[in-house]
Amino acid sequence: MVGGNESSVTDFILVGLFPEFQHSMVLNFVIIFIYTFAFLGNILLIILIWGDSRLHTPMYILLSQLSLIDVTLTSTIVPKTASNFFTGKKTISWIGCGTQSFFFLILGMSECLILTLMAYDRYVVVCNPLRYPIIMSPRFYMHMVFGCWIGGFISSFIHTVYPLHFPICGSRETHHFFCEVPVLIKFSCEDTSVYQLVVVVTSIVLLVVPFSLITVSYTFIFLTVFRMNSVKGRRKTLATCSSHLTVVSLFFGPNIFIYMTFTSSHRAEQDQALSIFSNILTPMLNPLIYSLRNKEVVAALRKLMGKCVAS
């Protein structure tokens, strides 16, 4: 019996958010509020981008993909977590765990690649402005977006199916609030050090390499900006790039720590705190970061509000 509900012997048990925290009810309501804000904020940003022809540019199309990822990512995690807490049923089926892990991985990996493409877009617009319409043609960036999703799908499929085949011994309880690869690894009763090394190598390819490309892109951007004679142009470029750099820091920081170190060295509370920050809090902040400091998005919002008032 788990939380007053029967569970199958193949089910996993997710103890939830910080089970020893005394004010767990308050914590879960805060998480639900953040999720609601993130969901509505990102949906609004998608509507603004696709509803205003002035925002039909590579940068904003990529931003709409980022918002789509954030909406789906938080919806993959929070509703199940809240349901488990309020119903007292802390179990998740083997299929449910695999499905949640798959969507979490494909969205996370696609976001990593999308952020890299956004850095490349900024590099081209700052360092090669005359060639920007040629390089970032609609066909080219749509192919890049499609490639991001395909790459995320293939990698997440492999890293979901393989861990689910590990034999599980003893307790199926984990001190986490959703299923992901480190959780599946901890369930196994056999030596998974080789696979954990594969995860680290994969993380190098999907985290360190994109992060390095982003760093190189912004190195060239800053060198170009510092050579600008116009102070106004310099400030405008830095303001545009600072939004993306903030999101990059919020995404890559926690994920590099989680996936590039062996799971045996992590404390449960540490993983939970980083997961909340990276997968729930950051999706709420992204629309604010990109909208409050972006005149085009603010103008599109005012235009939409004007239409709503007029109707």
Automatic annotation (TrEMBL):
<keyword id="KW-0472">Membrane</keyword>
<feature type="transmembrane region" description="Helical">
    <location>
        <begin position="274"/>
        <end position="292"/>
    </location>
</feature>
<dbReference type="GO" id="GO:0004930">
    <property type="term" value="F:G protein-coupled receptor activity"/>
</dbReference>
<feature type="transmembrane region" description="Helical">
    <location>
        <begin position="140"/>
        <end position="162"/>
    </location>
</feature>
<keyword id="KW-0716">Sensory transduction</keyword>
<dbReference type="GO" id="GO:0005886">
    <property type="term" value="C:plasma membrane"/>
</dbReference>
<keyword id="KW-0675">Receptor</keyword>
<dbReference type="GO" id="GO:0004984">
    <property type="term" value="F:olfactory receptor activity"/>
</dbReference>
<feature type="transmembrane region" description="Helical">
    <location>
        <begin position="194"/>
        <end position="226"/>
    </location>
</feature>
<keyword id="KW-1133">Transmembrane helix</keyword>
<keyword id="KW-0297">G-protein coupled receptor</keyword>
<keyword id="KW-0812">Transmembrane</keyword>
<comment type="similarity">
    <text>Belongs to the G-protein coupled receptor 1 family.</text>
</comment>
<keyword id="KW-1003">Cell membrane</keyword>
<feature type="transmembrane region" description="Helical">
    <location>
        <begin position="26"/>
        <end position="50"/>
    </location>
</feature>
<dbReference type="InterPro" id="IPR000725">
    <property type="entry name" value="Olfact_rcpt"/>
</dbReference>
<feature type="transmembrane region" description="Helical">
    <location>
        <begin position="238"/>
        <end position="262"/>
    </location>
</feature>
<feature type="transmembrane region" description="Helical">
    <location>
        <begin position="102"/>
        <end position="120"/>
    </location>
</feature>
<feature type="domain" description="G-protein coupled receptors family 1 profile">
    <location>
        <begin position="41"/>
        <end position="290"/>
    </location>
</feature>
<protein>
    <recommendedName>
        <fullName>Olfactory receptor</fullName>
    </recommendedName>
</protein>
<comment type="function">
    <text>Putative odorant or sperm cell receptor.</text>
</comment>
<dbReference type="Pfam" id="PF13853">
    <property type="entry name" value="7tm_4"/>
</dbReference>
<dbReference type="InterPro" id="IPR017452">
    <property type="entry name" value="GPCR_Rhodpsn_7TM"/>
</dbReference>
<keyword id="KW-0807">Transducer</keyword>
<feature type="transmembrane region" description="Helical">
    <location>
        <begin position="62"/>
        <end position="82"/>
    </location>
</feature>
<keyword id="KW-0552">Olfaction</keyword>
<dbReference type="InterPro" id="IPR000276">
    <property type="entry name" value="GPCR_Rhodpsn"/>
</dbReference>
